[in-house]
Amino acid sequence: MDTEQNVTQKAVIKISGIVQGVGFRPFVLRYADKNGIKGFVRNEGGQVLIHAFGNPRSLAAFADGILRDSPAGSRIISFDKRISELPPSELTPPGFIIAKSSADLSGEVMPTPDLAVCGDCLKELFTKGDPRYRNPFISCTLCGPRFSVLRRMPYDRENISMSDFPMCGFCASQYHDESDRRCHAQTVCCNGCGPVLGFVGAGCTASGEKALENAVRALKKGQIVAVKGIGGYHLACSPFLGFSADKLRILKGREHKPFAVMFSELSEIKEHCEVNPGEEALLCGSERPIVLLKRRENSSVSESVSLKSRFLGAFLPYTPLQCMLLKETGPLIMTSANATGLPIIKDDEEMLRFYNGHDELFGVLLHDRKIERRLDDSVMAFACGFPQFVRRARGFVPTAACYSGEGGPAVLSLGPQQKNTVCLSKNGYFYPSAEIGDLDTAEACGVYRGAVRDMRELFSIKPEVAVCDLHPDYESTRFAESLGLPLVRVQHHFAHIASVLAEENIKERVIGVAFDGTGCGTDGTVWGGEFLIASPFGFSRAGHISPVKFLGSDESVKQGWKSAFCLLAHAGITPSDGRFPVVEAALKNGVNTIISTSMGRVFDAVSSILGICHVSTYEGQCAVELENAAARYRGDAEALPYTISESETAFTADLTQCIKAVYESANKGLDPCFLAMRFHKTVSRLTVDMCLKLRQKYKIGSVALSGGVFQNRILVEDTVPVLKKAGFRVLLNKKVPPNDGGISLGQAYIGRFAGSGSEE
Ligand code: ZN
Ligand code: FE
């Protein structure tokens, strides 16, 4: 046995992230006892500080255990461990204690995100005789609304919307009792105090249990009911009745985009979807995101819910009210209450106005606890064996997404136009906002400006640098210009790649592959199929797919068939379609045309050429349906031909031969699913080929993949293993979405290093 293990060392551990109000200190105490560690743990500012004394092996086991098993609601952003030999003057303490909190507020104070109702509260909720039996607002220190009820920092009763409800004597006694689970639970209330349910519906208003009964009855009949949630209202209806879902589509003005379904229990989800252990952990976590799961073929969920998608967005209830509701109704479609393209409705008056204007909506189940912050449900999916965001919002926001080490200026990045998020950075922490949505309406722009103001106040950050997109006409760009701060303009695809670099705090150069629909290039053309050599200090465009002339209007972007005609014209093919000459003439005369390397539009075009989907009624629909068609093909499929050429400055990958082959094979009547799969293989092969050439030329062995096209699971799962096998280190977004929702993080990361010079 080595003598080293008998030496006592001291470890000073500083942990930041979501580590307060989530049972972190008792957890550390347990692990200290388990490993024979002496010392103390205490809250210090927004951090947790541990002084741990023990031998090297038990100290290591202690630290590993904390990182591995930290409590459900917690999230560790940085874990700083400094080990020193014990100075002779310092004695090992006799035991391990939870010490009094330090009032030092110098650490990063982070507001906690909203937490799903916990098991203990659920038990009380359904136990007759409990003071909180059937209380739709039950919560404790480990669960309940947080960020969504927060008016200002710090997170105390008087600063949240629960301050509208004075505590009764019973709740107050628990609140002040240090041995109680509800000690300092800011959202505590019971049946004797706290908010009250209400129902407003056709000819009937009710409150309390009657309100819930009305909602249940209507939902069981297939009606649509609005239900107040955490960060806004949901529109709910049965997922088993096609006519309900169809009515909901009319109500929302949403033709084809799949709806998510809330199930009352995990076992119920498993009846309808395949669930792997990682997905199970996501579904049951305190963040309760919607998880895109493979739908079972025998699922009785109506076709109208997710249409042609092979996935079903499933999630579990996270408020006590949802738990009570679903216990009676069973699974419900739960989609954000708003007309398509507008922000989610959070205020009661606004909801009632919406109700009055929509005959399809039967009623509104509401209550008088105010929602202070608009938060959509988060959406995640598993790809390559780990979870990825599709949308980062409720449950995750406002937690910092990543940490890049101390220093750097305070940065405010303003995001792109679509799927907008903004991001604040201070002291090396990056705080992306919840997804605000597309800034195409006056309403969304109003919410956007409010969100920026709110974030600045909440984190009390005075930005020294603003960052925006290169595109001059983005609402976010114009807003950035109005701030009067030093402004850094960042190319869109560079920001995509930087979002991956930010997550891993990477400062060296990587090969960045950014595939998406559209982004303003540095040469005045529209980019979207890019191979960049990038570090946070700058980038060069080392490769791209070949530029094609497209029709440029926003309307044309949605028309996959128009993109198809443009690609066919580029390939010298004249399809026998009456509409082709019109498109051809527009291209020839340069009527509202653009030159673009958009990979997204190539996917749209192939979808249309194969007769799968011709028009997108939601972003990416043509491409999504192409992917679903490819997934239906079971068998081997080879890549189609393409070429890569090299000029002095960059490599160009030309897909003309591939497009020709797709067109000719489709005309011969070959299976569109088979051809869809061959197209995916082609893009995957092309990506790997380009990376190999770039590695040879630039001697860089890391590849970062980002951009909306990389939400395509077939593409990712085809490409990543091949890159890895070729010896590349492959980086994908894990903390923000690869789509435009991640742009603000990338912008902020670049902004953080702006002016600090290159470290290359
Ligand atoms: Zn609880
Ligand atoms: Fe993009």
Comma- or semicolon-separated keywords:
single chain, 760 residues, alpha/beta, 12-stranded mixed β-sheet, 7-stranded mixed β-sheet, binds zinc ion, binds fe (iii) ion
Descriptive account of the structure:
The protein is of the alpha/beta class and 760 residues long. Helix content is 33%, strand content 23%. It has 23 helices and 32 strands. The strands form 5 sheets. Strands 6, 7, 8, 9, 10, 11, 12, 13, 14, 15, 16 and 17 form a 12-stranded mixed beta sheet that branches. A hairpin with a 2-residue loop joins strand 16 (379-383) and strand 17 (386-391). Helix 20 packs antiparallel against helix 21 (672-698). The longest helix is centred in the C-terminal third of the chain and has 27 residues, at 672-698. It is globular and about 80 Å long. The two termini are 46 Å apart. The model has no long low-confidence stretch (mean pLDDT 93). Residues 118, 120-121, 139-140, 142-143 line the site of zinc ion.
